[in-house]
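Entry 0007
Protein: Alkane 1-monooxygenase
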Amino acid sequence: MQTAFPSRPIKALPFWLSLGIVPMVVIALQKGGWWFMLVPSYAWYMTSILDWLLGLNRENPDTETPESQLFWHRAITVIWFPVQAGLVFGAIWHVTRNDFSLAEQLGLFWGIGIASGTIGIVYAHELMHQKNPLERWLGDLLMASTLYGHFRSEHLLVHHSWVATPRDAVTARYGQGFWNYFLHVLIDCPRSAWRAETKRLARAGRRPWDRRNPFWRYGALQLAMLALALAIGGWQGVLLFCWQALVAVWQLELTNYVEHYGLTRKHLGDGRYEHVRPRHSWNASHKVTNWLMINLQRHSDHHFKPDRRFPLLQTYAEDEAPQLPLGYPVMATLAMVPPLWRRRMNPRVRAWRRRFYPEIEDWKPYNRGENPMPRGAP
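Output (structure tokens):
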């Protein structure tokens, strides 16, 4: 049942939980030592404990809500780039001018990378799906601050078109451990994004090196970020910037791994696959982690309606979409230990198969990614 969507700013306030990370980083910079653990304690553990206390939110907002009523929800994603840039480059300035041990530096920028990945990339994901040029630029800036600009091309041109098929490297196969998956996507996705963009340009009669290729923008923005880190903190600043970027990407790909693990679209023959449906993404209705990650865990609806803004995303019952037992932070922690992950998730994947595809008897081609590539895939 859908509910009317309130327009009062106070109703958007829970989605501003991300700002709580700012004082955590400031305290860690001031005190050093193990204080960097404030960031993961806030982003991972506190929100997960509150999930347990406050439970699930199964209410669905009215999808016909006009965009004018979403101003305060959208605002947090719009202001986040300057906030994150202030944290990253302010920390580089502070650390390179004060006496921090190598362990303290790595710890601090590990914590900042968690903020860049858990918050910054999630917000970039929301922004890159919008038609507003300012929002798209802000999304590109956030991705450039993690040196992962190609993600927009890969996500919009490949992942959303070919999710849960062999073409999509981001869909983790059944039984595939996270660390194998992580190495695979780091190598494959930049090349995949380049192929998708060059094919898009070719359809318009343009060459790969045409100025309209967004890889020029991705590269320029990333070089600008590195140059700023160099100007502020020298080569030490560059290395610290790259370290937080790697941590942020690790966070992104942990989330990607969790979102579609083991789920596949049915192959209909001759490279044809069924349309994307809510059943092809793991859904989670955990209240507080959805506040922090702006409803990213309502991922089934995001893939079903990719242009729907985050406050309006719907949740689904078990008969429509598979359900995660816990929110993303806890599931991502499990994913880093493949035997524990498989013990918890493989039975759920098998139950999903029995529920939605009882007619499929041989799952080996799906498990191994051996089904034909989808027709028309770049």
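Curator remark: The beta strands are 2-3, 60-61, 267-269, 272-273. The chain has a mean pLDDT of 95.
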